[in-house]
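User: Structure please.
Assistant: Input sequence and predicted structure:
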Amino acid sequence: MAFTAVLFPAITTVNQAHPCRHRILSPKRGSISRTTRTLALPPSADLPSLDAPVALAAASSVAALAAALSFSDPERRRRQQAEVVGGDDKDVVRDYFNKTGFERWKKIYGDATEGVNRVQLDIRLGHSETVENTLAMLRDGGPLAGISVCDAGCGTGSLTIPLAREGALVTASDISASMVAEAERQARDALVGHSGAQMPKFEVKDLESLEGKFHTVVCLDVLIHYPQEKAEAMIAHLASLAESRLVLSFAPKTLYYNLLKRVGELFPGPSKATRAYLHAEGDVERALRKVGWKVNKRGFITTQFYFAKLFEAVPVSSA
């Protein structure tokens, strides 16, 4: 699932003042290649100066926002969501993506533009950038034909299908039976006539129920639905399934993104039906180190309403 959609469901305008750039961070921090879409932020010199009345008004707005945030109680709403479906985070996610969330996200991940607003189109762009950069990471290791890949949290098959087209042996799973059925339907249509393509194996399973051994395990846009302690256990389990590579995306926990998240929680709206958790880059790296893995490549994908860190991890012994 894309990230900022669960934070700002009501936003319908896009600021086009600053164009996007393409960037991916390689194993060495700070080195740059050209494949990941990132938002170019204005330097401080480009920001307009404020006169005294405007500065006072801005300060008042910040104070009002801080007060509103202090009175918001997202944890109470989260408990209410769990009570409605009679379970925990996992049950909330399963219920949402089998019902109202399925139609919404099928539309976002699809190709049609009718009935899709600008924010949803932007989220589609961000997710597609994450998929493209994941494919680029995987291709760096050589041809994908014959490589076993677990696509954990496959959604409607946006990564599963291109992997299968390249001959990868894909096992695709999702917590939502509706998503799995749609992914299988799309795969059957998309792979007709593609020489060398392998029809994926589809399963309805949550991350912790996955079994088997795979050359590569990929989990995109899923960890946002789970708090750190659960995400850490999921990362450890996914690493136990992977023999050579583990690719993860997650919403980064920074002061800026945490503020965006808190503001979004003031306006939950009908589409904010799952809980959103940000994860610090250091916490994800520590979770990987605990089970003997280290980050080999890293990327950062940002559009106007989507943001994600992308990690490729490998066993420490092979790094």
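Confidence is low (pLDDT under 50) at residues 1-75, 80-86, 266-273.
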